Amino acid sequence: MTVDLSRYVRQMRYAPLGEAGQRRLVESRVLLCGCGALGTVLANTLVRAGVGLVRIVDRDFVETTNLQRQVLFDEQDVADALPKAIAAARKLERINSEVTVEPVVADVDHTNVEQFAAGMDLLLDGTDNFETRFLLNDVALKHGIPWVFGGCLGAEGQSMTILPGETACLRCLIPDPPPPGTTPTCDTAGILASIIQVTASIEATEAIKILSGNTDAVSRALAVIDLWENRFTRVDLTKLAASSNCRACKQGHYDWLDGEATTRSVVLCGRNAVQLNPPDRSAVSLDLLAEKLREVGTVKQNPFLLRVAVDAYQLTIFPDGRAIIGGTDDITTARAVYARYVGN
Predict the structure, then answer these.
(1) What does pLDDT average to in each consecutive run of 10 residues of the chain (344 residues)?
(2) Which of 66, 115, 246, 267 could lock 70 by a disulfide, CB 3.0 to 4.6 Å apart?
């Protein structure tokens, strides 16, 4: 297929990339897990750069508090109660119609992550939780797919690139996730949009290096940035890669991908909300559920989700039975609310 590269002429003039690198970008396929703050910047950058296919998987919908830092969304997306993946894809298709954007409204877990990663050249971290990151780490190691980790809190960001078989992996650096409640969250520590832009730009540039064939230029270090203090730190990980007896990359145990270390309920960062996943992933008829719930609260529905405000809670239900219960950060309470209004 003949591709018009004229829109990328400024990018191709950068010598390490050139026309050959650009053509490799056009032929590349990327899985982006999470389309919030980091994810929207990553998607925006890669689609504008001409990456051939970007598959965006995200479990959430757009809210007003997202607009401070999630660059692909606007107030109309909030009013329409659009899932983030759908809203992002609609914007991106208007930015670059030559790129294929695949939006998927789903929660990434051990039952589906390999399906989403199949055929991809790179995995990108746009998430806000350790569980998904450890899943990405496992599937990357198992299938030999490079991936880029990124995370932000307050005015600090971190990024690390993992090349399976060459570099340290995430579990070399963080063997296990910190216990709940032991680390700050965006709800307690806040977050600045500027650190999102910087961290996602580092991630995106690492992605472009890999996809364009410039793996020699990929960082072998953990980048730590504190924008408030204007401090940039580079932690060399080459010795860690050589000395680690990592359970994942050295011993070949994929605890998260095997489902041994997973959970089915998640407290959402900064949201006063809990996500619930049905164990059997039973399909839900949104039309029938809307008819039932109109008797107890105000219902809003679109093809992708149903929302109902009842008592002090806001329930968002997806066609696969997954739900986000707003108004509580207590998992037991969220399950009780789900059972009361949706069913067991």
Answers:
(1) 87 97 98 97 98 96 94 97 96 97 94 96 93 95 98 96 96 83 67 96 98 97 97 95 92 92 67 80 82 88 90 89 90 83 73
(2) 66
The Cα–Cα gap between 197 and 72 comes to 13
Looking at the structure, tell me whether residues 184 and 310 fall in a common domain.
no
pTM, whole model, 2 decimals? 0.87
Q: Which residues contact 217 (CB under 8 A, 6 or more apart)?
A: 16, 209
Question: For the CA atoms of 297, 301, 305, 309, what is the dihedral angle to 10 degrees?
Answer: -20
* 221 membership: H or E segment, kind and range: strand 221-226
Domain with 91 in it: 6-243
Picking from 125, 96, 112, 118, the residue whose alpha carbon sits closest to that of residue 35 is 125
Classify the phi-psi angles of 227: left when phi > 0, otherwise alpha if psi is within -120 to 50, otherwise beta: alpha
Beta bridge partners of 123: 31, 147
Q: What does the pLDDT read at residue 188?
A: 63
In a domain, 248, yes or no: no
HSE on the CB side for 12, CA within 13 Å?
Answer: 15
- In this structure, the answer to whether residues 106 and 39 fall within a common structural domain is yes
> What is each CA distance from 141 to 101, 115, 223, 274, 320, in whole angstroms?
25, 15, 21, 30, 29
Taking the C-alpha atoms of residue 51 and residue 49, their distance in angstroms, rounded to an integer, is 6
Q: Whose structure tokens read 């806040």?
A: 190
Total Cβ atoms within 10 A of residue 21: 21
Instruction: Tell whether 257 is covered by a domain.
Output: no
CA–CA gap between residue 125 and residue 47 (Å, rounded): 16
